[in-house]
Amino acid sequence: MLSSRNPFYPMRSLIIFFATGIYSGYSPIAPGTAGSVVGLAVVWLGFGPLWMHSPALCLIVFAIAFAIACWISDRAEKIFDQHDDSRIVIDEVLGMAATMFGNPLTVGCLILGFILFRAADVIKPWPANLIDRRVRNGAGVMLDDLAAAIYANIVLQVIVRVL
């Protein structure tokens, strides 16, 4: 029988690869932080240049990537047999992208965005904490980090404009 629990399931390796943020989720210390570092690379190499070319296209690509990440997270939960397993860090990868949308991609802003996102992801201000407790499956994995990223983005936008 082909299922996500079968070790020979053809998509299993790809799901684990992407769900764990190219295996950064296997970090023995702070896997979410490791996934956020991968997110910085994704912003620097992918979303940042795309944003400079076309913000609208960048948001469309992000929305598609987010929907796919919900599906991947859902499948990864079944593979790991645990809701929001600590190895699943694709939410942190895309959370970093959402944090940096519309912000300068200078080293200082990237570092500050990283710190703000990690803080918001750990603290989980409302509604992130509500989403974290009540929404299940892949959407639950992804949406609480998106909420945290929106807060981090807003704070970063204010700091950039004030300083």
* Separation of the first and last Cα atoms: 59 Å
Query: Please, how many helices?
Result: 7
**What series of H and E elements makes up the topology?**
HHHHHHH
How much helical structure, as a percent, in the residues? over 70%
Strand content: under 5%
The biggest sheet, with number of strands, parallel, antiparallel or mixed sense and barrel status, is: none
Unreliable sequence segments: none
Mean pLDDT: 90
Please describe the topology of this protein.
Layout: H1 12-19, H2 31-53, H3 55-80, H4 90-100, H5 107-123, H6 128-134, H7 137-162
Helix pairs in contact: 1-3, 2-3, 2-4, 3-4, 3-7, 4-5, 4-7, 5-7, 6-7
Explain what this protein looks like in three dimensions:
The chain has helices spanning 12-19, 31-53, 55-80, 90-100, 107-123, 128-134, 137-162. The radius of gyration is 16 Å and the shape is globular. The protein is built from seven helices and no strands. It is mainly alpha-helical and 163 residues long. The longest helix is centred in the middle third of the chain and has 26 residues, at 55-80.
